[in-house]
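step: validate -> pass
step: tokenize input -> pass
step: predict -> running
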Amino acid sequence: MANTTPHVRLCFRLAMLALAFLFARAAWVEPIDRQALTSRHDPALTEFDAFAPLSVGNGGFAFTVGVTGLQTLSKEYAGAIPLGTLSQWGWHTIPAPEPYRLNDAVQWFDAGGDKKPYVSETKSAAARWLRANPHRLHLGRIGFVRSGGSPAAIQRGDVQSIHQKLDLWRGVIESRFQLDGQPVTVHTLCHPDLDLVAVRIESPLLADRSLGVAFEFPYGSDQWGPGMADWNSPDRHQTAIVHQTGSSLDLLRTLDRDHYAVRIAASPGGVVQREGPHRFVMTSSGGDTLEFVCAFAPELNENPLPSFARCLTACEEHWRRFWMEGGAIDFSGSRDPRAAELERRVVLSQYLTAIQCAASSPPQESGLTHNSWFGKFHLEMHWWHAAHFALWNRTALLEKSLGWYRDILPAARETARAQGYAGARWPKMTSLDGRESPSGVGVFLIWQQPHPIYYAELCYRAHPDRDTLERYRDVVFATADFMASYARWDEKTNRYVLGPPLIPAQECYPPASTFNPAFELAYWAWGLERAQLWRRRLGLDPDPEWRKVHDALSPLPEKDGLYVTTEATPVVFENADLRRDHPSLVAALGMLPQTGMVDPETMRSTLHAVFRDWNWESTWGWDYPMLAMTAARLDEPGLAVDALLMDTPKNHFLPNGHCYQRPNLPTYLPANGGLLAAVAMMAAGWDGAPSGNAPGFPSDGSWRVHYENLKPMP
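step: predict -> pass
step: emit ->
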């Protein structure tokens, strides 16, 4: 600029200032209007839809209602999404005809010359009982009934002029309808800290006592699937009144050796009367407004119950904090016509996982809406239910369930010891006590084993301090000890192999002959390396066994330039029967970061081969976010979005946000949690991601991605 005139220099400086101002303005973005973002996706109904019931809950307890705001039309919903009242603590065991033990279902499998016991026999009476018990319990049904001498049950056609909305920002369901030509308004909510339903009803039908509320209690059901209750065995359980006044009732429920308590309290004027061994009806002695709270608990509790008004205040404060303090992502302004639907799924999935997947134990795959697999939870799915909490700035919700792993550590150590392994082998299908369930598939899965290391790492990233390291060290180290011990040295090939017996995450391979699945090999490498990092953080020397196994693990199996699911059966892309179920081979670089075992270009070719020719009807809801994460890491953001929004039967999100899978699995929370993990990763990035905003979304202007409080994925 030495030879330029002052005028030219002045113009140049002004141009630079203007450019700087434009860049600064582009970098500055208005904060997301959290309430507007949330509320524009409030589920709303104007007609009966058996696949769109709504739920309120607090993470460990949920109450699902139909269009009346209560569970009035339970029979009409039973064939779609049933109306249940489920908790993390409510379980029931039908007495066994004789003392059954896991050893009664053991079969022996060869593992490199050693015989290992697996509880894989499923046809005996012992195995069937052990799978079905304990089962999660439907705690009770609350619904409208006609009273005042009318015997007629309320039918679906009696409920007219339906207007129902779930106010996500407040956590309250508002239901308006007409019954017998009269208006009824119902507000339904759940207390954030108590397993308590609070309800406010307004209707002229209350004043003449022609409308009441029935509280009914079933026996437990050992049937697989949504049924979750036996309403036809009144003599097999008891409902005892412990204390009663005109407007309140304390009940003790006893089912064989199990019991729980129910407390019901109505507003002044409410009257509760017994009408059967397990049925109580509440009516109003005057006025057109009735409020009540109904609390469920493992034991009797004499503490006074909060009023509806206090419950409402606590609920509104809780949900405002939830939406304001967690992550948020706004796609408004995007040109891609699918953006609004993705945003809807994201908002509703945050709500659903918060009310159903944030307890002190892992959730079942159908959450707390209805039962699947007898209400038991599957630990390989825990990642898909809850890992996203840490990425959405809600690590505390993930940590709620992690103490359970410490609780069952002795049982997991015993499982490993019985099979001749070190450390702790985590179960697959289990309940609160951590006991494995007999299965011809589940007991051979291993991809749940590294999960606790992943959870601990997510917690450390949120709280990188000594307390976090000490809190999870025993679980991390016991997990790594098992992983190193499980890997078997193969003298012929001078490497460590995984299995047999083994079934990979893609569950269509025989256990006795399957070994070296691609995804599990990569996860083993990541888990052992991360466990060593935890030792270094704690000032400990590396574990020599972990290092030896890590450094000599078998490479990922491949054939014809593509990764394959297992080394034992490398014909996945030649055999249509193997291109079904989970395409888990792509998770080796997607759900997982680069471990040094994956060639990106080989994985890219593999991902494209999966997209070209997979049996999508056989997939599951979490497969789509799994594919999206792989596409994002391979710098194919368009393919990542296509995966998330693929139009297939198993990727269909209902009006209430649930992801339908099949008639006996109409809700599937791993799909919701997986979606949140993938979207957070695509927006906030991952370790080693390209710089810039939202590296997992297309940068061609079709997507406007505005996010707050999201964390990068490892």
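step: describe -> The CA atoms of residues 652 and 659 lie 6 Å apart.
step: cleanup -> pass
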